[in-house]
Each structure stands twice: as C-alpha cells, then as structure tokens.
C-alpha cells in the first residue's frame, strides 16, 4: 500500500464517488477501483460496499480507516515540508512562473528586492497564462508557480505544497455612466443581458465567471477576450460592456471613468505559491516567507 493509495481512499470517502476521486488523482476509474480492491485485500476487510451502483456506501471499518489515513497522509506532508529546511539551496537560477499579476500584487518588486539583498542567488520570474504555467510546473520546467486556487485543484497535495499568499474578491468593472453603475452590488441575473469582455481561459478569472453563469443557468454573452487588463479597462469607457477582475489586480487600472461593483453572492479567490514537495529547499522557503510577509500595498 502506497501513500498515494491512502490519498485516493480519502478522496473516495469524501466524494462518495470513485469516478470523481479518480479524476482528482489523475487515474482512470478502473485503475482506482483495482487499487481499492488491493487495499481491502491487504487489510483483509471491506472498506466500502459498491453493490448499489448508484450509491457508494462506506463500511464502519472504512470510516475508521479513513481517520487513520488522514493522520498518516498529514504526517507525511508535514515531514516533507520539514525536510525542505534541510535541503541545501542550489546556485542555479530558481525559476518561478506566475499568472499576469506580478505588478498589481507587488510580487515582481519583492523578487527584485530579494535578488538585490541576496546576489549569490538569482530568482527569475516568468509571466504567462495559468494553463501554461501549470504545464511547465508539472513538467519540471519551473521550480514554483504563483496561481489562483481555481488553477491548482488538479495538483495532488501529496506532490505539491500550496501556500496562500493572499485572498481577493471578484468584482464587476463597468463605466460610471453604465445603466447598472448606480447599483451597490450586482448579481449574475443583473448581468444576464450584459455584453461581457473577459480575460481568456487559463487566467483564473474566466473560469469562475463562466461557472457563476452556469450555476445561475444564464448564458454569458462573452464577445471579447484579451490577456491584458489594460485593454479590457480602456474599452469599457462610455461602453455598455462589463468585465470581471479581482479587486487588487484591477485597482492600478481604475480611472475616474470606471466603477467597481462587488458580486452578490461574493466570490473570493486565493493566490497560491505552489512547489513540488520533494523539491522544496531553503531558498524556496525563504522566497515564500518574503512573499507572505512583505507589504504588497503600493506606496
């Protein structure tokens, strides 16, 4: 039995669904089912009852084993995190990929200051769309990534450390003379007829926006996509269009011609620093500490 098998069982217990758990750990349903049967054979006890194909039932033994699995996996994760302090830092450049928010959240400035104070190390920061950053991280082309939580759900907690740098609220940005500008907040139903401009797929913004419309059973009228926030905000002036941005990333681009309205219900996102657990070292932890403790508010 491997630690990955314990994590898979934890997900099966939480989802009560083998297909959902298999997708979460990047396994096919037959392969995960095979591993679960192997676990039951090794433990010599049934952990679940799958006779009813519509409803997976966890046995009393499965519930007890779930709590033991949680303890083992949590201990393993803590051990890997603790060992990162003991791994020496490499002198080769450390590459961090980030979604295009390095300027708005003051991340580029923090990295530059770190490089100036520690000339023996060199930290490189690369901006790209989230899907490209995620692909580079899983392929080992970069050492760490800064992504929104909506973009890191596919990463296993057994393989990657995720640390929250900050949280931010999704906002609707529109012209001050827009018909909806006088409302204190906006719902998806308020926006069902709005023309929408948005950041593209992989931005960490497009995904929650589309999900909001889908959950409200409203088809969004997305007619324009751009990877550049400045392009979106400049096109809003005296326009009937709206766009969605996270508050702190939008603030540098706000003018007296634009207004920002919160969504109801509110949508909050975490910006996360992610790195492979087995590759964590003193330098990565130092960078993470600097990013978590530095003041990101622009002076």
UniProtKB/TrEMBL annotation:
Please list the residue ranges annotated as the HTH lysR-type domain: 1-59
Q: State one molecular function term (GO).
A: DNA binding
GO CC annotation, single: cytosol
Signal peptide region: none
Give the top-rank taxon of the lineage listed in the UniProt record for this protein.
Bacteria
Keywords linked to the UniProt accession: DNA-binding, Transcription, Transcription regulation
Give the family from UniProt: Belongs to the LysR transcriptional regulatory family.
- Supply the name of the protein: LysR substrate binding domain protein
Q: Which organism is it from?
A: Lentilactobacillus parafarraginis DSM 18390 = JCM 14109
